[in-house]
Amino acid sequence: MQITRQADYALRAIIFLSRLEENEKAATSLIAEDQKIPPSFLAKIISQLSLAGLIHTSRGARGGVSLAKPTNEISVLDVVEAIDGPIFLNECTKISSSCPFLDSCPLLEVWVKHVPTLLINFPAPHFPTTTLCPLK
Fold first, then answer.
1. How far apart, in whole angstroms, are the C-alpha atoms of residue 45 and residue 78?
2. Measuring CA to CA, which residue among 41, 15, 22 is closest to residue 133?
3. Which residues does the chain have with pLDDT short of 50?
4. What is the predicted pLDDT for the residue at 93?
5. Of 3, 4, 11, 44, which sits most exposed with the smallest number of CB within 10 A?
6. Which string of b and e fits 89-104 if b means at least 16 CB within 10 Å?
7. How far is CA 131 from the centre of its chain?
8. Cα 85–63–73 angle (5° rounding)?
């Protein structure tokens, strides 16, 4: 499994926002510059993170981006799934699978058995503010 570049950028944006003071907002241009994210790409990422309820956005002179909840309530899985969608080990583990071998596949049980284990353990890493370096 490999996350997309977009998910990697989203994780970096969340880390950047986690370093802000409470009630502080950051301009997307600042996030893009600091985290080396193409600004047009970041705009799409910010929109997806906002739709997922992970960040707040506001426009105008006093606008910017901030976290919608404390960092210890945001998991790596939350961010990755906000960008890439639900994680599946194999196509056949999706609810609406179109695999022609679905009824007779000897691996289906393996995939179905291990997806829940992966997802139970994957959300554990959160973004605790105490472990992140403050902005310079």
1. 13
2. 15
3. 130-136
4. 66
5. 4
6. bbebbeeeeeeeeeee
7. 18
8. 40
Contacts 24+ apart (CB under 8 A), 1-8: 1/87, 1/89, 3/80, 3/84, 4/83, 4/84, 6/41, 6/44, 6/45, 6/83, 6/84, 7/79, 7/80, 7/83, 7/84
Element (H, E) at 111: helix 108-121
> Distance between CA atoms of 52 and 101, rounded to whole angstroms?
34
- Sign of the alpha-carbon dihedral angle for 84, 89, 94, 98: positive
Write down the pLDDT at residue 44. 96
Is residue 9 classed exposed, middle or buried when 0-12, 13-18 and 19+ CB atoms within 10 A define those classes?
A: buried
SS3 20: coil
Distance CA 52, CA 61 (A): 25
pTM given for the model: 0.77
DSSP 8-state assignment for residue 133: P
Q: Among candidates 123, 124, 126, 134, which has minimal Cα distance to 22?
A: 134
**Is the Cβ–Cβ distance between 127 and 79 less than 8 Å?**
no
